[in-house]
Each structure stands twice: as C-alpha cells, then as structure tokens.
Amino acid sequence: MNATDITKALDGVWRGSSGMAKCPAHDDRNPSLSITEKDGRVLVKCFAGCEQNAVIAALKARGAWDGTRPTTRVVETFTRDQETLERIAAAKGIWASCQDGERLTAYLNARSITLAVSSSLRFHPALLHIPTGLQLPAMVAAIKNSSRDIVAVQRTYLTGDCDRKAEVPSPKMSLGPFEDSAVRLGPSGEVLGLAEGIETALSAMQLHDVPVWAACGSRMHRVALPDGVREVHVFADNGVPGRLAAEKAADRFTRDGRRVLLRFPPDRFGDWNDVINGRVAA
Questions:
Q1: What is the pLDDT confidence band of residue 280, given thresholds at 50, 70 and 90?
Q2: What pLDDT score does 43 carry?
Q3: From CA 145, how far away is CA 108, in angstroms rounded?
C-alpha cells in the first residue's frame, strides 16, 4: 500500500503530498500520524510519541500494511523541512479539535485573572499528555507568526476541576516551530506589550491596560512586531534570567527604532501574575 492508501484506510485526510490520520497505535483523539512518501519509501511518524514498530504492527493488524513492496519501507528521520511542516499540521489539528475558551474561566480566575478569555486561547476536555499517557483537560494557546498563521500551540494541562495546573511532569508543553511567533492575547496598535508567559501577559494586560502578547519563553527579542507598533512595553520577570531576557528584547526593539519601556514587578514578586495574586490576597 502506498501513503495515500494508508491515509484512506485510517480515514485520514490527504493534503498535497502528505496525509494526517489518527494513529492506530494509541487511543488517538487528535490526528497525530503523518503519512507521506519520498523516493518510493513510505514515511510515517507519530507526533504523540509512538514507536515505529508499534505503528507498523497496528497498521498490519488493520490490513493497512503488507510490507511486500521492496521499495516501500519506514524511515525514522524526516528532513527538517518535512518535520517542520508536519509539526505545524499537528499543532493546527490540536487547535481545530478544541472548544472555545469559556471553560478556562475557572483556571484564569484562580490565578486572579478576570479579563474576558482571549480568542487565542481554547479549551480541550481530554488532550493526550505524552509523558504520562493520560488524557487531561488543557488550555491550548495559538502561536501565530507575522502572517497571522498558526504555526504552533502551547498546551497547559489542567486538573479535572480545571482550576489549576495538573500535577504531572511537564504540565506545559509546546508543539511546532516558534521562530518569530507569539500568542496574540490582545490587538496590536501603536502600543504593545510583551511578556514571557501567558498568565504573566494576561496579568500585565489586566494591571496596565495595555495589549500584551506572550512569547512562551525567554525569546521576546525574536517576536516579529507589526510595523505600526511604535512603543513596546516589556513586562519582565524578576531574577537574572528574566532581566537578561527583558534587556535583550529592549535592545532589539530599540535598534528597530521603537520606544521601549522595561517594566519589572516589585522586588518581592517573581512576575506580574504574582503581583495580582498578591493584591487579591492583601
């Protein structure tokens, strides 16, 4: 069977030169298996982490793999470009399978965030957490590039009550290439804020009434800002890593000809979410 046949056998979707389908080697609720061909070879990769042998065995059990074509074999390594495209497709698949963000109110309110839920955030009731194999509720954030295309997602896994992060290894996980992208939590105008994390960005937006994007890490300096942004508020985390990330971003955007304001939380707080939590507690 060729790649198209396998995709059809799994009720997947073929677009252009590749297919995406639910992986037969695990209880896949979101299509995570990539199927394509190159130089007469079938290439399969499960982005949920299934081993190649497990995928082949599951395909054989469904009659979707005969192994008789001498030119058809599985290879473990995609080229960098192929893997990037497939990771983007997998990220978009997760985003498309989500519900709107209404159910995230409990989690955000528990962090003292009372803003309306951004359209860049969605809720998934049972998303696979690869390290544990559990299906958990999750906050899913769309990470968009300068063309406003989704290229990655960040998943924050939650407890059953959806009021705090799940007590699992790596409760936050990202999928897809970040490059110059960010979670656009507010509209951009002449003034735009940047922060490392989603909760920090929302907290800064709530406190300072400035639209803020989340870089999902210390890579604020790499985010591509719209041409119309004249003033950048860098909402830093306290501590050496946070200061270094903020100063790197300030240097980059100053060189771009923009006015930059470095905004650190008071010394007793780690980040801007700690600030609003402290205010509520007080």
A1: low
A2: 82
A3: 25
Of 34, 32, 129, 24, the closest CA to residue 83 belongs to 34
At CA 145, angle to CA 141 and CA 149, rounded to 5?
Answer: 75
Tokens describing residue 71: 């030119």
Work out the angle between the directed axes of helices 272-281 and 198-208 (0-180°, nearest 10): 60
Tokens encoding 11: 């009720």
Q: How many Cβ atoms are within 10 Å of 41's Cβ, its own excluded?
A: 14
User: Tell me: the pLDDT tens digits for 33-85?
Assistant: 888 887 777 888 888 777 777 888 888 877 787 654 433 344 444 455 777 88
The tens digit of pLDDT for each residue in 124-165 reads 999 999 899 999 999 999 999 999 999 999 999 999 999 999
150: tokens are 């989704």
Q: Which domains does the chain show, CATH number per domain?
A: 3-78 (no CATH), 98-179 (no CATH), 182-282 (3.40.1360.10)
Q: For 110-130, b where at least 16 C-beta lie within 10 A, e where not — what string?
A: ebbbeeebbebbbbbeebbbb
> Do the Cβ atoms of 168 and 132 come closer than 8 Å?
yes
Three-class DSSP category at 231: strand
State yes or no: pLDDT of 257 exceeds 60.
yes
Distance in angstroms (rounded) separating the CA atoms of residues 251 and 257: 10
Half-sphere exposure of 182 (CA within 13 A, CB side): 29
63-to-47, 68, 134 alpha-carbon distances in Å: 22, 12, 28
